[in-house]
Amino acid sequence: MADEVLSQNEIDALLSAISSGEMDANELKEEENDKKVRVYDFKRALRFSKDQIRSISRIHDNFARLLSTYFSAQLRTYVHISVASVDQIPYEEFIRSIPSKTILNVYSVEPLDGRMIFEFNPNISYAMLDRMLGGKGTSVNKVDNLTEIETTLMSQLFENALENLQEAWSSVVEIDPILEDFEVNPQFLQLVSPNETVVVVSLDTTIGESTGMINICIPHVVLEPIIPKLSVHYWMQNDKKKERKPEEYESISKNIEGAKMDLSARLGESQITLEELMFLSENDTILLDQPIDDPLLLYVDDHPKFHVQPGKKKHKLAVQVIDEIQGGDPNDG
């Protein structure tokens, strides 16, 4: 290991402390000879690097934004979801950390092995249910006596949200998430061994005036096949692969060329008062600001693009392009 370099001020302070007796040089030597020991808990084995955890956090940042939009549309109320934390802990610790009665959804994510758990805090779950049933979004904890209709409504809401999870993970792997189980007691869920490492993504959630957490538990067995794709190197290489090839540009250009646009040729404009408009009658004349000898303007999606002159073609009104407007206000002269 490289030696640590001290600044001149630190050297002066160290020499002053030794000379004044505040620090013993022999004690410094003893401390240097002591072995550096770091405690390692085998029950909390860290199987993901910080780089991989950051990648998972980035994926779920996108998922949180998509989920906010989805729930806002479904519940017609203010919804804000953001990533609060991403941790790797033993599965047993995750089960102990969530309420004894809560809303748990178990998803399979083919082609990946294993299953994921989404835990919706009761405050959030019942605020959603109240909104779906026409209420103001008040949260009432009644996990013990969910009716069959309430269970079906909540399951459908959570199941339809899976498209957002699929889109968020599409940058790494194409998954097909399917809701397999709906449970209220975490003790009945034993997806992996108690000491198995899981990644827990906690989403801070606000629905109307109710707040709570959505916790996503992803076992190591689910992420193991795609761990190499969670590194920064993969993301950088993936970005390079996304660079457009010439044939792709040509294909995009052809598609754009076939896009339809609104064209309008304007004979002129005029301003009148509301009183004048109310008293208009047959054979009244409105003076336009367009001189009869000047070309008309052809607008493309409300933007002036060409100078044209009016006429007829095959018994239909038409305009003939005279020149193109090269930018700026065509009336400036």
TrEMBL record:
One GO MF term: cytoskeletal motor activity
Keyword terms: Bacterial flagellum, Cell membrane, Cell projection, Chemotaxis, Cilium, Flagellar rotation, Flagellum, Membrane
The keyword Cell membrane belongs to this UniProt entry's keyword annotation: yes
Record domain Flagellar motor switch protein FliN-like C-terminal: where: 255-325
CDD domains in alphabetical order: FliM
Membrane topology field: Peripheral membrane protein
Location(s) in or outside the cell: Bacterial flagellum basal body; Cell membrane
GO biological process per UniProt: bacterial-type flagellum-dependent swarming motility; positive chemotaxis
Record-linked PANTHER family: FLAGELLAR MOTOR SWITCH PROTEIN FLIM, YOP PROTEINS TRANSLOCATION PROTEIN Q
Family: Belongs to the FliM family.
UniProt name for this protein: Flagellar motor switch protein FliM
Organism: Gracilibacillus halophilus YIM-C55.5
